[in-house]
């Protein structure tokens, strides 16, 4: 099916575009009243993720409400550990929680390399439904968490400021950490390949906890596994890598077959451009900038766009949009990007 709006896909391939495409991480969610209304009828987050027709509906909501240039499938990075045999819960106002965690070699041995069709079929069906209902309006993004970030949750059992249990594993039992990371990587590769087969035009790898590792550990325990994912997926679709807080990893990513590098809001686009060569850059407005007045949001967005001059760019925030953000300010951000011809 021909895309009616292929700006995002062309930029993700590194091609020239007549304007900068724009979408937002976490664009499908609590900033939209239609999402809150739907979520309020359900038992919780997991029911929404695991019900393909509803996940597809939520994926498409920001295309209608915000007129962004790409849809991202509504799911969660923690579906991967669950598919491997480690169940999670999503606790309101607290976040993810794993009743059981990985603590030993026996725990790692028990985990399976998941079959995406058997264990993650609900995500693939949501992609197929979304692709059909989008009818070529915009490209569809699939995603997964980076292996290090998934390990961090599987070992820690919940979110953390330090992920000290997960980081202790890297120092005390590096061989076991590598065994677990490889199982996660093998699952993630087949999962993303299945997402592409189900309709994803681009895939993004989210390394949400990249920034808590020192550079030597990041090279050993994260980027080498992201490299495997990129090598497996790049022949199929453009790949985006977003490693929050790992500003020093840009040179690693520049050497990978990923096509786009996502920037968080603390990174300097000009510096990244100098390190990343001809890669497409994605980002990186501070999500908190959307708390400003309409005029402030417009000015901050234009200032951000100026910093990305000189190469292909996909406008986004430097992380996900915060749930208490005014949707009208999000529209100002989107509209400002669309009007920009700098």
From TrEMBL:
<dbReference type="GO" id="GO:0004853">
    <property type="term" value="F:uroporphyrinogen decarboxylase activity"/>
</dbReference>
<comment type="similarity">
    <text>Belongs to the uroporphyrinogen decarboxylase family.</text>
</comment>
<dbReference type="InterPro" id="IPR038071">
    <property type="entry name" value="UROD/MetE-like_sf"/>
</dbReference>
<keyword id="KW-0210">Decarboxylase</keyword>
<protein>
    <recommendedName>
        <fullName>Uroporphyrinogen decarboxylase</fullName>
        <ecNumber>4.1.1.37</ecNumber>
    </recommendedName>
</protein>
<feature type="domain" description="Uroporphyrinogen decarboxylase (URO-D)">
    <location>
        <begin position="21"/>
        <end position="30"/>
    </location>
</feature>
<dbReference type="Pfam" id="PF01208">
    <property type="entry name" value="URO-D"/>
</dbReference>
<keyword id="KW-0627">Porphyrin biosynthesis</keyword>
<keyword id="KW-0456">Lyase</keyword>
<comment type="pathway">
    <text>Porphyrin-containing compound metabolism; protoporphyrin-IX biosynthesis; coproporphyrinogen-III from 5-aminolevulinate: step 4/4.</text>
</comment>
<feature type="binding site">
    <location>
        <position position="153"/>
    </location>
    <ligand>
        <name>substrate</name>
    </ligand>
</feature>
<feature type="binding site">
    <location>
        <position position="76"/>
    </location>
    <ligand>
        <name>substrate</name>
    </ligand>
</feature>
<keyword id="KW-0963">Cytoplasm</keyword>
<feature type="binding site">
    <location>
        <begin position="26"/>
        <end position="30"/>
    </location>
    <ligand>
        <name>substrate</name>
    </ligand>
</feature>
<feature type="binding site">
    <location>
        <position position="319"/>
    </location>
    <ligand>
        <name>substrate</name>
    </ligand>
</feature>
<feature type="domain" description="Uroporphyrinogen decarboxylase (URO-D)">
    <location>
        <begin position="141"/>
        <end position="157"/>
    </location>
</feature>
<comment type="subunit">
    <text>Homodimer.</text>
</comment>
<dbReference type="InterPro" id="IPR006361">
    <property type="entry name" value="Uroporphyrinogen_deCO2ase_HemE"/>
</dbReference>
<dbReference type="InterPro" id="IPR000257">
    <property type="entry name" value="Uroporphyrinogen_deCOase"/>
</dbReference>
<feature type="site" description="Transition state stabilizer">
    <location>
        <position position="76"/>
    </location>
</feature>
<feature type="binding site">
    <location>
        <position position="208"/>
    </location>
    <ligand>
        <name>substrate</name>
    </ligand>
</feature>
<comment type="function">
    <text>Catalyzes the decarboxylation of four acetate groups of uroporphyrinogen-III to yield coproporphyrinogen-III.</text>
</comment>
């Amino acid at each position: 099916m021909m895309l009616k709006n292929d700006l995002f896909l062309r930029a993700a391939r590194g091609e020239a575009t007549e304007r900068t495409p724009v979408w937002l991480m976490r664009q499908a969610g609590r900033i939209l009243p239609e999402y809150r209304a739907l979520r309020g009828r359900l038992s919780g987050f997991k029911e929404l993720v695991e019900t393909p027709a509803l996940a597809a509906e939520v994926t498409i909501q920001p295309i209608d409400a915000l007129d962004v240039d790409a849809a991202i499938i509504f799911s969660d990075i923690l579906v991967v550990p669950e598919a491997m045999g480690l169940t999670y819960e999503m606790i309101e106002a607290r976040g993810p929680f794993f009743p059981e965690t990985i603590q030993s070699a026996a725990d790692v041995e028990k985990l399976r390399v998941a079959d995406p069709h058997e264990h993650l079929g609900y995500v693939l069906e949501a992609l197929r439904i979304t692709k059909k209902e989008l009818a070529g309006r915009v490209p569809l993004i699939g995603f997964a968490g980076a292996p290090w970030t998934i390990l961090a949750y599987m070992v820690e059992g919940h979110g953390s400021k330090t992920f000290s249990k997960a980081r202790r594993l890297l120092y005390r039992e590096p061989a076991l950490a590598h065994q677990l990371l490889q199982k996660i990587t093998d699952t993630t590769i087949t999962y993303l390949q299945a997402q592409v087969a189900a309709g994803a035009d681009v895939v993004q790898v989210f390394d949400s906890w990249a920034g808590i590792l020192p550079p030597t550990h990041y090279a050993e325990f994260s980027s080498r596994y992201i490299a495997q994912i990129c090598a497996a997926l790049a022949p199929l679709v453009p790949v985006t890598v977003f490693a929050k807080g790992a500003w020093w990893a840009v040179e690693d990513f520049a050497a990978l077959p990923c096509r786009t590098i996502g920037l968080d809001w603390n990174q300097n686009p000009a510096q990244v451009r100098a390190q990343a060569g001809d890669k497409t850059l994605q980002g990186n407005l501070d999500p908190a900038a959307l708390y400003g007045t309409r005029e402030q949001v417009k000015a901050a967005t234009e200032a951000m766009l100026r910093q990305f001059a000189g190469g292909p760019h996909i406008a986004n925030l430097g992380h996900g949009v915060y749930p208490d953000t005014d949707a009208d300010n999000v529209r100002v951000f989107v509209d400002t990007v669309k009007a920009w011809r700098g």
